[in-house]
Amino acid sequence: MEKFKFLAAVNLLLIKDNKILLIRRFNTGYFDGCYEGPAGHMDGKETVRQAMVREAYEEVGINLKVDDLSLVHVIHRYGDKNEHFEFYLKADKWEGDPLNKEPGQCDDVAWFPVDSLPENMVPKTKEAIEGYLK
Fold first, then answer.
1. What is the average pLDDT score of the chain?
2. What pTM did the predictor assign?
3. pLDDT at residue 5 in the model
4. Would you tell me which of 10, 86, 94, 101 could form a disulfide with 52, CB atoms 3.0–4.6 Å apart?
5. What does each C-alpha distance from 52 to 4, 27, 29, 112 come to in angstroms?
6. Is 131 helix (H, G, I), strand (E, B) or coil?
């Protein structure tokens, strides 16, 4: 009997001056046209924090340090074929200015007031941000 397996993803809550950095998905087949924070699947043989450092650099070109990340929210969700654990991490400091390093999968990188999020958001991301803010 095969053991249960799940997919794990990391998601970044990057907040500065009461604004949060969001990227708009494009050409991915998953909530295209909707905003979420920089995110991605874990590759294996890396910790949650290490995965977030890697994904933040790959997607928006910022440098994070593992010790500057804190886990603030977890969501267990069910997909069509898989179960997922979504880890949400917050960074209080980083190096570099965010930019779009994946124009084939993202068509906007912008800061939004945390109390005025865009309507077109990935639902799990909106839930996590609202949960974190409470």
1. 95
2. 0.93
3. 81
4. 10
5. 24, 22, 22, 21
6. helix
